[in-house]
Design a protein that fits this description.
49% of the residues lie in helices and 9% in strands. β2 (13-16) and β3 (19-21) form a beta hairpin. It is mainly alpha-helical and 333 residues long. The strands form four sheets. Strands 1-5 form a two-stranded parallel sheet. The longest helix is centred in the N-terminal third of the chain and has 27 residues, at 56-82. α7 runs antiparallel to α8 (240-256). It is elongated, with a radius of gyration of 23 Å. The relative contact order is 0.15.
């Protein structure tokens, strides 16, 4: 039976000669840039602290540079930690990022950790800022998953007659470069590949339909982004969009990882364990802080006439550790 969804993959986009681009890399780059634009627009409306931040756009650009560096380091480090057995014979392969092995959740964690010192030093409010980040991350991931679909990445277990089962019809890059001679095979026996009998230099094209978890991610994140844009029409408490992202994406990613082809620790993938930890931490924070009871809320459409507009950054006893101001400085004449 033919899969309900089928299309060829393209591992590289030829430029000239032997020079080619990875659609996966292009998706990540474009997703990051467009997600950054969306984040900055939200942050300029919402603000990042309960005081006026001079040159906010320039400071956000500095933060994005830190985030980009942290994302690269974190995505690779998380992958290596959760696949440590693959590097015992040749530890230097840890640095061979061109072979693949980057994770979205590791990149997100790395971006946050490298940006955190700047956030704390400048006394910005974490959830006020990351509520602006959340829609941008969703948009970036959505575009990045398009790159995954183009190269046939993140395939899972055999899908049988599942309506969203996916079959790779051919590898356009392999055919174009004649890697296998006159004709490149359209598919490989999945069982033989997994058992090590066959080690093809391609990804994604196998003899049966499989779960395409990048497609599941794409659908879940597209729905999440639309939900966020709809939710932005009304005022929302600080941390609302972070909560929405972690619970919504976390649930779908947790479920789809059960059919993802990946290494497991005590029955769960590394991403599943990370999502459980994030959900528990957020739940504890929500129960303890009850942020919906705190005023004012940073996301306050349509005017965003925040009481801290025009105030200066607090110093000394007027500011607590999070950068909140008990009483805004007197701006009267």
């Amino acid at each position: 039976m033919l899969a309900a969804i089928s299309f060829p993959i393209l591992e590289r986009i030829p430029i000239f000669g032997d020079v080619a681009l990875s659609p996966h890399g292009v998706g990540i780059a474009v997703g990051f840039l467009l997600g950054a634009v969306l984040m900055m627009r939200r942050a300029e409306k919402r603000g990042v602290a309960h005081f006026e931040v001079p040159d906010l756009r320039e400071q956000l650009q500095d933060l994005l540079v830190r985030g980009a560096i942290g994302a690269v380091i974190g995505s690779r480090l998380f992958w290596v930690i959760t696949h440590a057995g693959e590097y015992t014979d040749d530890p230097l392969r840890v640095f061979a990022v061109w072979e693949g092995g980057l994770t979205f959740l590791g990149g997100l964690a790395g971006a946050i950790l490298l940006a955190l010192p700047m956030i704390v030093r400048r006394r910005w409010r974490f959830f006020q800022l990351f509520d602006s980040v959340a829609p941008g991350v969703a948009l970036g991931l959505l575009i990045g998953r398009l790159g995954d679909l183009v190269i046939g990445d993140h395939i899972g277990d055999p899908a049988g007659d599942f309506p969203l089962a996916w079959r790779c019809t051919s590898n356009l890059w392999v055919r174009a470069t004649n890697t296998f001679g006159s004709v490149a095979p359209d598919s490989y026996p999945l069982d033989a590949v997994r058992s090590g009998v066959i080690d093809p230099p391609t990804q994604g094209c196998f003899d049966i339909a499989v779960h395409q978890t990048a497609l599941y991610d794409f659908v879940a994140v597209a729905a999440l982004l639309l939900l966020m844009l709809w939710a932005e029409r009304k005022p929302r408490w600080d941390g609302f969009f972070v909560m929405l992202y972690i619970y919504w994406y976390g649930l779908f990613r947790f479920l789809t990882d059960f059919v993802r082809e990946d290494q497991r620790i005590l029955g769960l993938t590394g991403s599943q364990w990370a999502l459980v930890a994030a959900a528990l931490a957020l739940t504890g924070w929500l129960a303890n802080r009850r942020p919906w009871d705190e005023r004012p809320w940073a996301w306050d459409p349509p005017d965003f006439d925040h009481p801290w507009r025009g105030t200066v950054a607090p110093v000394g006893p007027d500011a607590d550790a999070s950068g909140e101001v008990d009483q805004p400085p007197d701006q009267g004449g």
